[in-house]
Amino acid sequence: MKKFDNFSSNLAVLRRAADQDLGNAFIISGIIDKFFIQFELGWKLLKELLRYEGRMAGATGSPREIIKAAYSCFDFLTEELWLDMLKDRNDMTHIYDGEQARKLADRIIRAYIPEFEQLNQAILTRYGHDMDKW
């Protein structure tokens, strides 16, 4: 499935964030940009999975609705964390302060990347054998 392949490929880059120089504003900016892409790929992947499962919620376009529907369908999501990611994604265009950017990069590394990793592994476990059919 192309959406999963894109999600996994971007995650492979993002997971290296913790190994970077977090004192460098350019690096922090790159981590935040990669997070933005990863989140977009993630909620759109969840939407595709809901459609695959025959859930009507998969037809909507709202990230919040997709996250809530996916949480009710899949036991491998942490709804509150995904909603926090959505809020951070929405707020990140208003981050002008270096300290706020560093705090967001820390949340990305500490909480969001592990959640993306969990989703990646759960999809492989649950759908690995069927993904070639999509």
Structure description:
The protein has 134 residues and is mainly alpha-helical. The chain has a single domain, classed as Up-down Bundle (Four Helix Bundle (Hemerythrin (Met), subunit A)). 71% of the residues lie in helices and 0% in strands. The chain has 5 helices and no strands. The chain has helices at 2-14, 25-52, 63-73, 79-91, 98-127. Helix 1 (2-14) packs across helix 5 (98-127), helix 3 (63-73) packs antiparallel against helix 4 (79-91) and helix 4 crosses helix 5 (98-127). The termini are close together. The mean pLDDT is 90.
Question: What keyword list fits this structure?
Answer:
globular; 134 residues; Four Helix Bundle (Hemerythrin (Met), subunit A); single chain; mainly alpha; 5 helices
Would you tell me which CATH topology applies?
Answer: Four Helix Bundle (Hemerythrin (Met), subunit A)
CATH class: Mainly Alpha
Helical stretch tally:
5
- Spell out the helices and strands N to C: HHHHH
Which structural class is indicated by helix and strand composition? mainly alpha
Quaternary structure state of the chains depicted: single chain
Average predicted confidence as pLDDT: 90
CATH architecture level-2 label:
Up-down Bundle
Shape: globular
- The first-to-last residue Cα distance is 5 Å
Brief synopsis:
The protein is an all-alpha fold. It has helices at residues 2-14, 25-52, 63-73, 79-91, 98-127. The protein has one domain: Up-down Bundle (Four Helix Bundle (Hemerythrin (Met), subunit A)), CATH 1.20.120.
